[in-house]
Every structure is written in C-alpha cells, then in structure tokens.
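Page 37, continued from 36.
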C-alpha cells in the first residue's frame, strides 16, 4: 500500500491483482484528517482510493479515469455537494455515498432522492463506512443489466428505457436522465414484470436493515416520473407486507 501526494490530494493503492482488480473509490473531502482516515481505511480493506479536496479537482480527474464509487462530502469549499453529485452521475456510472456533517432528515432525503446510494453522517465509525461501501458495490454488481451482452432497451406503455445510458423516454418524447440507483430499480422491475419483488431483491442486498428507506425513496421518484397519479400508482404497485410489483407488459429490443 502506498500513500502518495499529487495535485488532487492523497492516493492509496491496494496491491495489484489483474484477475480481480480492486474497486476504485474517489473520496471528495476537504478536511485532511477525515480524508486520511477514510483513505487509509479503504486501503486496509483492499480498495484503491484517491482523495480530492474540491469538486473541481475530482471533475477534472473524471475526464481521465472513472471510479466505481465516489464518497462525497456535501460541505465543499468550491461547490455544493449535491450539485457535484449530479455532475459525477452525469459524467460516470459511479455509485455515490454521501458523507457529511449535515444530519437533518431533510438533507438525507434530498441526497437519496437526487440519486445518492447511501448517506453517512459525521462522526462515523470507519468499519461501518467500509461496510456501506461494500454494500453499494455489491448491489450495483448484482443489479440486472450490468453484465455485458444483456438486453439494453425495454418498452412499456409507451415508455422506453435505455438501461445502458440511464435514459427514460416518455410517450410524448421527453427524455429523463435517471440516477444509477433509479435505473437499477427500474431495470429490476422490467426484467420481472407482474412479479412481487421484495425490497431486498430490488436493492440487490440480503442485509437490508428494516429502517433503510432508500428503496422507498427510489420508488417514489420513479412513480413521479411514470405514473399518471403517483399517489394512486397503477404501474408500480405496493403489495403490502410483501414488496412491490410492476404491473405492465414489457418488450425488449
């Protein structure tokens, strides 16, 4: 493991393994002590990490190399963390873990609604942070449609989703750029229409906590896009005590 200084900040690289390369995690955090702690912990558990103290520096780096996950502090000196999160998702397919001192529930909900995969408040326990990183990466690797060669375009009720570009086109032609997490949930639905899917199945996780409402936020966002009345959903239906069901016929191309 090495610890090098470069223009963007700190770099922690795990040992190389060409058969199973470590996941690359960008840590965007302007507090040097917190950044060092996060990067050292990630490296200890086998991740490659790069640290950035500003939003601008990570956006420049994204033009060169795409990470698997970004850990984003909302309180950055040069831009709002929520805006940075949107720009990261537009420039890459990376997952986003929000790490912040903002503990108000409204901030958490907003972060998740805007596409964050998880939300951790400071102070935090380093090993819990690693567990959440692993959970995000596992969900994303298990999400339908990630493997090469799988079907890309699905249509239902006049809607069309491009599962590779995260674009949902409405019957009237309007296009919506979905967050990666939203795309994964919608892909899971269109892969298995007319089936009851549990929250764990939709998140691709077996260890989902009962208090984890991330999937509910994603369902709410999808309903606002595709339902005529999100409060009386006819497509993404709640099956009380069991999960959700996608009540539409789906065709693939």
């Amino acid at each position: 493991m090495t610890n090098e200084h470069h223009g963007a900040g700190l770099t922690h690289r795990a040992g190389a393994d060409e058969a199973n390369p470590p996941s690359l995690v960008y840590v965007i955090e302007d507090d040097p002590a917190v950044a060092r702690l996060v990067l050292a912990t990630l490296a200890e558990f086998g991740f490659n990490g790069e640290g950035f103290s500003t939003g601008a520096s990570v956006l420049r780096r994204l033009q060169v190399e795409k990470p698997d996950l970004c850990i984003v502090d909302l309180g950055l000196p040069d831009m709002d963390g929520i805006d940075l999160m949107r720009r990261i998702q537009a420039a890459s397919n990376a997952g986003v873990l929000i790490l912040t001192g903002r503990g108000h529930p409204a901030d958490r909900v907003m972060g998740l609604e805007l596409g964050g995969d998880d939300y951790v408040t400071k102070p935090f326990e380093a090993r819990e942070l690693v567990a959440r990183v692993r959970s995000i990466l596992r969900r994303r690797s298990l999400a339908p449609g990630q493997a090469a060669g799988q079907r890309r375009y699905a249509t239902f009720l006049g809607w069309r989703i491009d599962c590779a570009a995260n674009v949902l086109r409405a019957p009237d032609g309007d296009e919506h750029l979905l967050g990666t997490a939203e795309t994964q949930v919608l892909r899971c639905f269109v892969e298995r229409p007319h089936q009851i899917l549990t929250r764990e199945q939709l998140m691709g996780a077996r260890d989902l906590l009962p208090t984890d409402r991330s999937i509910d936020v994603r369902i709410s966002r999808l309903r606002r896009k595709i339902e005529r009345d999100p409060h009386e959903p006819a497509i993404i239906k709640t099956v009380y005590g069991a999960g959700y069901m996608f009540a539409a016929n789906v065709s693939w191309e």
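Helices lie at 32-44, 55-62, 81-91, 105-113, 126-142, 180-191, 199-203, 214-226. Flag for discussion at group meeting. The chain is about 35% helix and 25% strand.
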